[in-house]
UniProtKB/TrEMBL annotation:
Native organism taxonomy: Bacteria, Bacillati, Actinomycetota, Acidimicrobiia, Acidimicrobiales
UniProt source species: Candidatus Neomicrothrix parvicella RN1
Superkingdom field: Bacteria
InterPro entries: SEC_C_motif
Protein name: SEC-C motif domain protein
Amino acid sequence: MVMSDKDAGAALAEVIGGGVVPRSELRDRLAEAGYRISANDVDRRIQMDPRFLELGDGIGYIPGLTEGVAFSLWIDPATAAEGYILMKPELDAIGWWIVECAVDVFDESGERIGDIQSDGWMIDDLDTDVVVGPDGWLDAFSDSWVAFRVRQGKLVIEQLVGPPEVDPDRAAAARTAFYAVADHQQYQPHGSDEVVDVMRSQVSTVLHEAIRADHSLMAGEPLPSSTDLLAAAGLRVERRSVVPADLDPEVLADADRERQSMFRWGVDADDALGAQILLGAIGLYAVESPMAFGATPDEQETSPVMFEALLERKSIATVVAYECSETEGCEAARGLAATVAALFEDDPTSWAMRWLVAHCDLVLGDIDSAAVVLDDLPGSTGYLPVLIDRARLAIARSQAKEAQKLLREAERLVEDLPKLTLLPHTYRKVIDDLQDEIEVWADNTPPPMARRNERCPCGSGRKYKVCHLGRELHPIEDRSLWLYHKMVRFAREQADDEIDSLAGVLTDVMGEPSLWAEMIKAPLISDVVLHEEEFEQGFLDGRLSTLPDDEVLLAQQWMLVDRTVFEVESTSPGSIELRDLGTGEMIEVVNVDDNPMSRPGSLLIGRPLPVGDIYRAFSGFMALRPDLVQAALSVLDDKDPDALMELLGSMHRAPEIRNTDGHEMEPTEVTWC
């Protein structure tokens, strides 16, 4: 018979009791107690139920381990009035138990106060763990010292006359526990030959180990506050960790940054430090600090060489490109990289800072400038972000097969990134998005332009096989869809704030703010940003030399097409004929699905774009009520994006039901007896 999760948890709690059981012995002990639970179910229960904890190679059960232990703290009147107390650090040892389930709380007389639970609140802009309970549960204890004692799976609040004294034996036990469970980080401060052993642990881990080592010592009389107990043990709580009291705060802060960087990026300490140095210099450059290149003349002279050498390390280049993947901050990265690259312009072997300039140009939308650098880089660097940047350039040139080849190579390199970090997920998503964009174009080869040994029709004078063979372009009638997708991607990369804002206006007027996440993906919103917000011009300005000539001409033509109101005149399979109500012009729009909006007489608002003699509605249409035609034409003439969103949102707002006096009616539930 398969045990439920609840029953499996109860069995584990019974077998573990108040001790810590080696993980390797758990199943045998369960079997001896008559419970048959698979190894996978045991591991899953321990993983999913935070009442169970790991100490070394052993498993404990928090309510059992802490039975009889009383954790003291002062109840702040300010937080008591709001019905909460801070969980850390004083109640950290039982915090995960409170997270898992509501815990019954009693006073010393045995009267039930209610149940309490942990919650996460934003306090002073920090995500803070708090303990909350029923209304008024702290009123009797406000501005006084209390102890939360664990008793048979429940908590009892005991009133204290003051803060408990620190027992030297308990302080020694806490110190011994810390050195038994602390993590060690061998940290070498920048510019120093000394290696510092930075030791850290968590309040809960130290207390759990001290209780495990000598339960009788830690139970009974209330423990002093965790802060006082740890201080007496020669320890302190800083940056949410327990550390030796004599550890230099600056060393701890720097070591924390290094460790967080190692976890975030999946790199070793040397590469974490190297990436921090480069990103720190970029941050200083952003605020125009003279310290960006060092504090002394010697540092300022040697730092460019160091920056170039650091960026030539593959892991550091991967990290820096990841951190410089948004438009915000890329201006500073580009400025610093350009300054360094200028110093090495006569050295063809120094390429890393030139690449970073090109990478930032790509992020900022200046593809033409990026192309000048990327085309001049060494042929094969084997660097993940360089491959992706070159793929983006190939896509701008509509070279789908070249882009596909580069992305597949990049995909293989992603597999080598550390799995449990942010980098592989982010890079894989970038690659997947680009592959989705080019797939249909890469998988369908355009017809050849000439025979292999004939001169290439492009006019280069070279043979076709070494010039444009394999780089042929699809017909512009087909490629127009890809061009539009490039423009939409540009809008989403460069104008995400504008897209977010317009989607917010639309959904607010609709009275459906929950649809915001869906609306930011709507083709209409991106098209409004491109045209009414005039991001089309920015798209072209950065690609005049890179886009194929026919795409430049088509994009310039699209810039002249305004959004307007149409009436459907007639329909045929796959197309509709529309009359522009502003000008009276008739156009044919192809690739249109048959739906109620396409029926003759329907009114539509949209911006179909010309492709040769026909039009295509890349951004779709929205139906328009007849009474809003003049208002729509006026709004569209003003090219006010917010006003347009308000108009469209008003058409989709739920109707208000009012009585004959004009008062809003409220729904009433009638129950028949």
